Amino acid sequence: MKGFGVRVVVAAALAMGPSVAARGGAAADDAALDRLVAAAERDPADAAAADALAAFARSALEGGDPGRARLAASRLAALRPDDAARARLLARICLALGDLDGAERVLRDALRARPGERATLDLLLDALEAGGRHRDMAAAWEEHLRHHPGSAAALDARARIFLWNLHDVAGAGTAIDRMESVAAHPETAAATADWLRRRAAALRAEVDGVRRRRDAVVGARGALNRRLALALAAAAVLFAAAMYALRPPADASPPPRT
Amino acid sequence: MIGPGRRALLLAVVTVAGAAVLAVEMAAPRLLAPYFGTSHPVWTNVIGVVLGALALGYALGGRLASRSPTFRTAGFLLLAGATATALAARFGTDVARSVLPDGVDLEGVQSVLVRGSLYATLVLFGPPLVLTGMLTPVVVEILARDRHAGNAAGAVLGFSTAGSIAGTFLATHVLIPLWGTRATMHGSAAAIAACGLALLVAGGGAGGRGAVAGVGAALVAVAVAPAGATPLLRPTGPESGVTVLLEFESAYQFGQVRQVALDGGGSERLLTLNEGVNTYHSVRREGSALTGGRYYDLYPALPLLAGVGPGDPLRVLILGSAAGTQAMALHHFHGGGGLHVDAVEIDGAVVEAGHAHFGLPRAAPWLRQHVMDARAFLRAADAAPPWDLVLIDCYANEYYLPFHLATEEFFALVRARLRPGGLVAYNAYAYRADDPLLRALAGATAAAFGRAWRIPVEGYPNFVVVARNADGWIPWEGFAARARAGGFPEFTARPEGEEALDLAVRAFRRAFPVEAGGAGTLRLTDDRAPVERLADLAVAAEEAALVGGSR
């Protein structure tokens, strides 16, 4: 399986039959990659050469060869640092390789170059979630909202992170307030406002549910602690009373040994 | 002086009482299991309270021994102990229920489960065990009147311990499976009461107050036993939208099949085990082969990833098949001649529940059911043809993985049973991608397979961990590209095929690779695999976040 997808694309990119590429195996893939990189570097303005390199990277990734895919994509990204699509390709490859830091670096650079770009943000959120970094996810949505203050999806997603991932009821409440405020804004489209209001109501119900669960747990814990303390105290008192009641009579002496 | 007959009676009584006490101890966790589970903390509470109560009983009995106790003294003690035991059996579920709040998820109730089990054990089982514990020094005192104290104590301890051993085996292998938990406890109460009556009669009170008291206590013991049909150990309120279709106690656990009404109409059946706060071990949704986006729904697409299409020869091993959710889904999407499923489940009662309520066939050419431990099965299966896909879903209690099914050695054994290129997949209960147990499990899998991937299940506290018996990478992106291009027509032609494929593609897009030996990742080996501890810490952290208000 390894390298199969790569060889097909390489064959197409280099205008030679797939069988020729297939016969060469990994060495042929490496050679093809070298040629594609050389072609793209020879003329950075050559869109076809860059596209061929991108296709190679995508195909390597789809074929289960992210190492070679990363090599191709990083060369491509270096050639076109301003190209968000290629940055995302490199980030996807980094994610497939488990390189969260690399993916985050590439994606944050891309977002700095094109703030608020949703496709890039989605990948950044994937990278952050893979690391369990939910606060950073909320911050990423907040940054997105700076550029798209009326984004209903962003408002909704941010509130859900506060509620379900962070269990931050107060933060969720503030986020829901903001959804309602955007919904009430005169510039918000009617359909968006309606959706936001419905989502806000649903989330508020979920917030209430979380509060109820929390109250139930806190109440149950308190009641249980009191009952446990009472039971232990009662056991201690009963034991002491029984020990006292069963104390040996004053005139008692051990029975004679036989 | 006591004669040989009365001495034999006393030793018989301590033997029977010893057996009854241990039967009660074995039954106690099971009585509480529907509410608190049978996790290590719960067992610790039960054992701690039992030993503590016996210690108090011995101390009190020692005091009583200095007051020249008689057969009648011992008889009254046992009757009181029998009554307390019967009361515990009768009101155990009421006490347990009174502790637990309704409508709370697992991560909000874990500490209540642990402390609640301590409270319930203390209140229910403390009194009977203190009373029966008092018997030992009293009997030693009586027997020591015409022999050395050490001789008397040795005989009493020897006979009572022998009785305890008998009670342990009888309760586990005979009484609880045949009678059930509450009847076992009532039976123990009756045995203790019979011993008490025998001592009263032997003590000369047959026609007097002793017999009256004895008969009265026996009547109490019988009266508090539930009359008529045995009520559910864990009933559900009519407002909950949950109907209990089946309740069972097996050698391993307490289980229920619940029918749950869904918000959007329709219903689903869930198999819950022990406390079953909000977890389940099998799902069957009315009129569907899928389960509403749960982790089970990712499995049908896995054979496609391994290059096996519907109708192609496909050998699947399911470890922890429970009531058959995965087996039925695989049959729906891959049945038609080439499918063979070996389903391994340790608890035969769970398989029976599958036959009765989850549509699992009793006999089918594509399915072979095995009732045994998963690792023992794998070890014994060295001569079986290799499997294309191994699915693992072995959970004990609410969320504990059995440790011997979570180690590097276990996953190496799994790999040895896979064909080259075959896949293993399992569900890991975890709230976050950086959960220590998830990382340790994926790390153990990667140690055996070279690499593993964890896949978050959207909307659920689950991750599916996947590994392949081959070098290199699983082509997740290639699978997605092929799926988007309509590359699996036979699969998508089946009912719900499009939906299953779409779910898998969306989930597989987020497959994240894990290498062995990651920094800060605990190695899980047969020698050391603290999976219960890691699971408890994860749930406790989630509970602290819930109650504390934030992570």
Most residues in contact: chain pair: A-B, 57 and 63 residues
From N to C, what is the helix and strand string of chain B? HHHHHHHHEEEEHEHEHEHEHEHEEHHHEH
Number of helices of chain B: 18
Strand segment tally of chain A: 0
Q: Could you estimate the helical fraction of the residues of chain B in percent?
A: 40-55%
- How much helical structure, as a percent, in the residues of chain A? over 70%
Can you characterise this structure?
The complex is a heterodimer of chains A (258) and B (551). Chain A has 258 residues and is an all-alpha fold. Chain A contains 11 helices and no strands. In chain A, helix 5 (84-97) runs antiparallel to helix 6. Chain A is elongated. With 551 residues, chain B is α/β, with parallel strands linked by helices. Chain B contains 18 helices and 12 strands. Chain B has helices at 4-36, 40-65, 71-99, 110-133, 135-143, 149-179, 181-202, 209-223, 302-305, 325-334, 348-357, 374-380, 408-416, 436-449, 476-484, 489-493, 497-508, 531-548; strands spanning 242-249, 254-261, 267-273, 282-285, 314-319, 339-345, 367-371, 387-392, 418-429, 452-456, 462-468, 512-514. In chain B, the strands form 2 sheets. Chain B has an 8-stranded mixed β-sheet, with helices on both faces. In chain B, strands 1-2-3-4 form a 4-stranded antiparallel β-sheet, sandwiched between helices. In chain B, strand 3 and strand 4 (282-285) form a beta hairpin. In chain B, helix 1 (4-36) runs parallel beside helix 3, helix 1 packs antiparallel against helix 7 (181-202) and helix 15 runs antiparallel to helix 17. The longest helix of chain B is centred in the first third of the chain and has 33 residues, at 4-36. The interface between A and B is large, with 57 and 63 residues.
